[in-house]
Write a structure and sequence with these properties.
Strand content: 15-25%
CATH architecture: 3-Layer(aba) Sandwich
Largest sheet: 5 strands, parallel
Structural class: alpha/beta
Order of helices and strands: EHEHHEHHEHEHEEH
Shape: globular
Number of strands: 7
Radius of gyration: 17 Å
Number of domains: 1
Oligomer: single chain
Distance between the termini: 27 Å
CATH topology: Rossmann fold
């Protein structure tokens, strides 16, 4: 794979998609920094899982270890305080009147990108990598390529510097995401994602399924499980 000689910041939650995107970035950039966000998310167990994923990747892939840079945590508590959603409140996951799942946190990805770019402006990187996808997703409007393209244009204009967003999973199904992980890092990377990454909206880590840990019934678990079943079929 072609590797470019510059830096990138990866929006890294510690889930399946962001773990795959981290590997994708490590294959292509000389220096990669990770960015996590706390916003009062119900599944805050992901904050521990993201460190385990990063440590496991560094331990397992020496060719990537030297490219892994600093990890940054950005506190966005205000986002959780103004969000009445199933990701930020202990309420049942359902579909709201607008047709969106109640797990939709309004503006989340747009805010994430703004803060990641502001960090990049200070740290010296203008390439951002994130796991947004408009193929297998829950209908979130801030995952659409059109939305993200417009946001990055505004960011580049506002910071007076050309920022680029890479979304390697944009047109991938969940099965395709598993396949990409296998291509990037073989069974070793797949096992790290299975054992250490976290996707479940409820934050459940008790039960180990074929596809990893989770409640098995929330939309995130269902997508991950169905993708794994298709990938291993």
């Amino acid at each position: 794979m072609t590797k470019t000689a510059h830096m990138a910041g990866v929006l890294f939650s510690g889930g399946q998609d962001s773990a795959t995107c981290l590997a994708w970035a490590l294959e292509r950039f000389d220096h990669v920094e990770t960015i996590g966000f706390t916003y009062g998310q119900r599944h805050d167990v992901e904050m521990d899982c993201r460190l385990r994923v990063k440590e496991a990747i560094a331990r397992t892939f020496p060719q990537w270890r030297t490219r892994l840079g600093a990890d940054h945590i950005i506190d966005l508590a205000a986002l959780g305080q103004i969000s009445e959603t199933s990701l930020t409140r202990n309420v049942e996951i359902d579909i709201n009147q607008s047709g969106l799942p109640s797990t939709f946190v309004p503006g989340r990805n747009l805010i994430f990108l703004n803060f990641a770019a502001a960090l990049g402006w200070r740290r010296g990187f203008t390439d951002l990598v994130a796991g947004m996808c408009e193929a297998d997703f829950s209908g979130y409007p801030d995952c659409r390529k059109e939305t993200l393209d417009m946001q990055m244009r505004a960011i580049s204009l506002g910071l007076d510097k050309a920022f680029t967003l890479h979304t390697p999973l944009m047109h991938c199904s969940k099965a395709g995401a598993w396949e990409m992980a296998e291509i990037l890092g073989g069974e070793a990377l797949t096992q790290i994602i299975l054992e250490d990454s976290h996707t479940c909206y409820i934050g459940e880590r008790g039960a180990r399924h074929d596809w990893g840990y989770g409640c098995g019934s929330c939309p995130a678990c269902e997508l991950r499980a169905n993708g794994w079943a298709e990938f291993t079929r």
